[in-house]
Amino acid sequence: MTGHEGDTERTFAALPPAHGRGFAQTWWGQAWLRALEDTALDSGQVKTGRGLARAGAVGAVSVRPGRITAVVQDRDRTAHRADVLLAELPAEQWDRLLDLAVERSGHVAALLDREMPTHLVEDAASEGIDLLPGLGDLEPECDCGAWDHCGHTAALCYQVARLLDQDPFVLFLMRGRAEDALLEALRARSAAPAETAPEPDGVDAAEAYAAGDILPPLPPPAELPADPGLPPSLDTETPPGPGVDPVAVRHLAARTAVEAHRLLAEALRAPSARLSPVQELTVAQDAVRLAVAAPDPALVERLALGSGRDPRSLTDATHAWGLGGTDALSVLEEPWQPLGGTLARARAALDSAWDEDERPALTADGNRWTVVGAPAQVRLGRDGRWWPYRKERENWTLAGPAALDPATALASVELTSAELQR
User: Fold this and answer.
1) Would the pTM of this model clear 0.70, i.e. be above it?
2) What are the b/e assignments for 225-245, b being 16+ CB within 10 Å?
3) How far apart, in whole angstroms, are the C-alpha atoms of residue 384 and residue 402?
4) What is the pLDDT of residues 189-239, one digit of tens each?
């Protein structure tokens, strides 16, 4: 590089042959070459130019606004003057480009480090300012008489790609601004006081609230389908892959549809009627959810094994799930000891649930109160509700949904027993 020749022209000494390396290592240098390779109609001429540039046949390169020039020697040592023209940016686009450059603090620093900021190029392009050349932007002129890119203009473009790798200000000069003038304009903009931000568009909050009664009503909510949707059929001629159980997959899809229907029903409830958010299920709880209506005994056994249960306890768990979800499942499988105020409230509920001469004799074991001499039991949930249980073949089974008091819960046990005896 010989340095500056005035403010608007730079001349770069001929570069040595480019043995064993590409012509563009930076993203902006590669973009420059794409503009050449995508424009040239004769790819053979592009290949010839690449060979000439690689062999060091391109002389000193002169760069000025709108034009690059060099003398290129053919393989027979014939010299040709090659020029490539690139349109200068108009003044209004330069003003906007400089504004964009100072909007981000890293842009100027990157340019001083001889880096082309990607965001600057992208932001400029979004506003119609094409800093890098595109298809058809590199216009060739050569004294060899070619009307399109020839080997000489292509060689010049490949050599300039190497210059751009070293200094992106070469591109700014081609577009119409020398380095000194550009940096001075950037410093002036960076030092200028920031303009007061304009008032945001919109409407005053009080005004918007006052106009609420004239807004159109919201559309009615979607109607809840009567039943969950049916998953697509898995009956295809393709055999399942290794480890894939079609029965399990089909059941999983069906239970997913059921859960989606439940979630939609909850979303469509009035806000005052919505239930408390459901906590994420544990693996053992989710196995119970999936075991509901399982169509295959092998699948039930698989779910039981995976959740640490035997088939009988899984059956009891799915029955409880159907009556009360995770709350019922917790009361079935997790005994606990009421203490302090919780125990006192439980005893008060038991004392007040019946008249003194009608109260059954009960024995307590943690949160479970069993009727003496009868296969009936009530269990207190952690939420204060009472769950009815009936003893069947040495196994306690949930007899119905929860009640707010123990007497109602025990009554549902008696009702269920009467129905079973019919």
Assistant:
1) no
2) eeebeeeeeeeeeeeeeeeee
3) 10
4) 877 555 555 556 666 676 666 666 666 677 787 788 888 887 777 676 677
